[in-house]
Design a protein that fits this description.
The protein is of the alpha/beta class. It is built from 14 helices and 16 strands. Strand 10, helix 9 and strand 11 form a beta-alpha-beta unit. Bound molecules: pyridoxal-5'-phosphate. Pfam families: Aminotran_3.
Length: about 450
């Protein structure tokens, strides 16, 4: 494609043409099937689109940019935190150096997560934090003389990221990583946890879990799950009872427990971390997505003193992982500001308000032909169809209602920013319903 002059703004049609010629988008072919919308700016809960024919259109964001932008866009305090940090330094290497934003963040994460979690590894994306969690668990067993404990167990329907080891614990069938079955390490799977946050514990499922963990304990390094909400693997909710059960089984059989709270962390399910619904702590916890309020890419892997001490007793007593942008000061500074902002307000009340708003505004969707289930938990609303969604038609229907949604598989769902007002919530509910009708 013909070159363009640097410094001059691209007309929208040219921008879209260059995008289609050169740019990969998530989970997409090249060139992309659908033409992406061009976002010019974002403020509060609104994305401002530049239209190909000129002019603009605003959409209410129903996605929080994939669980991340919990305070909306352009929040003055978060903007200021980035600017202040930019005036000091945007980045320095973390090997042999440290700085206040990262130290404050690590100490804060230790303070607000369950008590046994004491040590923090700052990673640059969620998938990397899951890689680090897995490495910690395998290395722990290797270091204490049990190198044969190197498999992972999970339940089906999960999602833990797109790099290779995390892919090995994503749902092996329904997920997007089926292609890699022959390449990935073979992990152990049990069925999906029985659905329903309030559903009573299913004794048959519990027995199956118990049996498998006991039988495989000699080779099992860890159980890894998303607590309470399985996100990109199917937007399913399960009872915290299963987390208590996993904690008990892991303790009994000498297996570590990893909670991937990358999607659930920072209040989304109504608890600050989903582990709190169960009143237990994992040995290792992954955080990401909302950690910086959606401003910059950052994730964290927390572990207990026991895991860290185990690793330190090994023949190779170091955790051999060190991303170039580890502990990035800009990201850490805005994470600190985002956590301050969240905890300073009555966020439980806001999440509750969104839960109620979504329940009300999605109630009508249950009667739409082709809708199999409507469910809401915390600030998450899901409409599940009985057929694969027509993504283009569903997205267009939502956009016509003035809302940005990103349906996938058989799911039309929303996890709006916590600052979303009641009118905008109603609009999101109407858009989800319209997308269900169209898709
Ligand atoms: C998004 C997500 C990941 C991957 O995080 P990235 O930052 O996209 O690498 C892992 N686990 C869960 C539960 C997620 O929701």
């Amino acid at each position: 494609m013909a070159p363009f002059s640097p410094g001059t703004p691209l007309p929208v049609d040219r921008l879209v043409a260059l995008d289609r010629a050169h740019v990969w988008h998530p989970y997409s072919p090249m060139p992309g099937k659908a033409t992406p919308y061009v976002v010019e700016s974002a403020s509060g809960v609104r994305l401002r689109l530049a239209e190909p024919a000129g002019g603009h259109r605003e959409l209410v964001d129903g996605m929080s940019s994939w669980w991340a932008a919990i305070h909306g866009y352009g929040h003055p305090e978060l903007d200021q935190a980035v600017r202040d940090q930019l005036g000091r330094m945007s980045h320095v290497m973390f090997g042999g150096l440290t700085h206040e934003p990262a130290v404050r963040l690590a100490a804060r994460l230790v303070e607000i997560t369950p008590e046994p979690l004491q040590h923090v590894f700052l990673a640059d994306s969620g998938s990397v934090s899951v890689e680090v969690a897995m490495k910690m668990c395998l290395q722990y067993w290797q270091s204490i003389g049990r190198p044969e404990k190197r498999r992972l167990l999970t339940w089906r329907g999960g999602y833990h990221g797109d790099t290779f080891h995390p892919m090995s614990v994503c749902d092996p069938e329904g997920g997007m990583h089926q292609l890699w079955g022959g390449v990935l390490p073979r992990q152990l799977f049990v069925g999906e946890p029985p659905a329903g946050f309030d559903a009573p514990l299913d004794a048959g499922y519990a027995a199956e879990l118990d049996e498998l963990i006991e039988r495989e304990a000699d080779e099992l390094a860890a159980v890894i799950v998303e607590p309470v909400v399985q996100g990109a693997g199917g937007m399913r909710f399960h009872s915290p009872e299963y987390l208590r059960l996993l904690r008990e089984l892991c303790d009994r059989h000498g297996v570590l427990l990893v909670f991937d709270e990358i999607a659930t962390g920072f209040g989304r399910t109504g608890a600050l971390f989903a582990a709190e619904h169960a009143g237990i702590s994992p040995d290792v916890m992954c955080l990401g997505k909302a950690i910086t309020g959606g401003y910059l890419t950052l994730a964290a892997t927390l572990c207990t003193g026991e895991v860290a001490n185990g690793i330190s007793r090994g023949e190779v007593p170091v955790l051999a992982h060190g991303p170039t942008f580890m502990g990035n000061p800009l990201a850490a500074a805005v994470a600190n500001a985002s956590i301050d902002l969240l905890l300073r307000q009555d966020w439980q009340q806001e999440v509750k308000r969104i839960e109620t708003g979504l329940r009300d505004s999605l109630a009508g969707a249950a009667g739409v032909p082709g809708v199999r289930d409507v469910r809401v938990l915390g600030a998450i609303g899901v409409v599940q169809l009985d057929h694969p969604v027509d993504m283009a038609a569903a997205t267009e229907a939502a956009v016509r209602e003035g809302v940005w949604l990103r349906p996938f598989r058989d799911l039309i769902y929303t996890m709006p920013p916590y600052i979303t007002g009641d009118e905008d919530l109603a609009r999101i509910g109407a858009a989800v319903t319209a997308a269900a009708v169209a898709g």
